[in-house]
Design a protein that fits this description.
Order of helices and strands: HHHHHHHHHH
Radius of gyration: 21 Å
Number of domains: 1
Number of helices: 10
Length: 285
């Protein structure tokens, strides 16, 4: 299989599987679960760290590296407004709502990945939702762990070195492998999703796949490109007024969902072409 053949077939499969429409579906669920999820995380941080609001600020600042500035301003302002009136009851309801919407997004991803890998859903509805709930929690933990390592790994190792006395060599090693660990956690989140979400009969676990690599690199690239585009050509506020920030946030979620599905499409295409090659080889005299 040549790279050109893989690229052409992947493009055809993207069109056939209607990944653009399915990415919009994922963006809708991402948007619904964002603020309830932030409220729940803030409540958990409040229980653990008490009144140390700077931890909440650091949590929000983690989004600034990926979100466009306008969307980041919307997230922080909305989050702070909701936080002023939130209680333990609203935090619990927010957590349940966030879990429900995130699970709905994962079931939508399951349906899409079944189409990508050309398989039919044979699992019961209960099993589908149980897998979706577990996958949602696991992927969330992996993504948050990657963000923590990515943004606060240096601060954590500095704190640990002061407490237990790590030498300079170990500190240097940690700082050198900090980014690879964060990227590995993100690739693991992709791999877990690609492995368990579709109803595959013949599963093969791989820590890193071409699809997960494309998804991560592509997501970082499109996020950076989108930020750059908005920096020079942001006309959404003029066109949509106060809704411009919401449109930008939804577009970023759309790009995120598309890169997740595009990585799966690449894996499915490679598997499809590999099967064709095996059949052609068996038919040779």
């Amino acid at each position: 299989m040549s790279l050109r053949e893989i690229a052409v077939q992947t493009g055809k499969n993207v069109a056939n599987d209607d990944l653009t429409a399915r990415s919009a579906q994922l963006a809708y669920y991402f948007f619904l679960s964002l603020f309830p999820g932030l409220i729940f995380l803030s409540s958990v941080i409040g229980l653990v760290a008490g009144s140390k609001t700077h931890i909440r600020d650091h949590m929000l600042q983690s989004f600034a590296a990926f979100l466009p500035p306008t969307a980041y301003a919307l997230v922080t302002s909305t989050f702070n407004e909701i936080l002023k009136t939130s209680t333990a009851r609203t935090a619990l309801l927010g957590a349940l709502f966030a879990l429900w919407t995130a699970t709905s997004g994962m079931t939508a991803a399951q349906d899409t990945l079944n189409g990508v890998f050309k398989v039919k859903e044979t699992r019961s509805l209960v099993k589908v939702y149980l897998i979706a709930i577990v996958l949602t929690v696991v992927v969330l933990i992996l993504a948050l762990s990657a963000l923590i390592v990515f943004f606060y790994g240096g601060k954590l190792v500095t704190l640990i070195s002061h407490e237990i006395g790590l030498n300079a060599g170990l500190t240097f090693i940690w700082r050198s492998i900090q980014w690879p660990i964060a990227l590995f956690l993100l690739s693991l989140a992709f791999a877990v999703t690609y492995y368990w979400a579709p109803d595959l009969k013949d599963r093969h676990w791989k820590w890193l796949t071409p699809g997960s690599l494309l998804g991560i690199v592509g997501w970082l690239a499109v996020s950076g490109a989108f930020r750059g585009y908005l920096h020079f050509f942001n006309r959404y506020s003029v066109t949509y007024g106060s809704l411009g920030a919401v449109i930008i946030l939804l577009l970023w979620f759309y790009l995120t969902g598309f890169m997740l599905l595009l990585g799966a499409e690449l894996n499915g295409t490679i598997a499809e072409l590999g099967t064709r090659a095996e059949r052609a080889q068996k038919q040779r005299p």
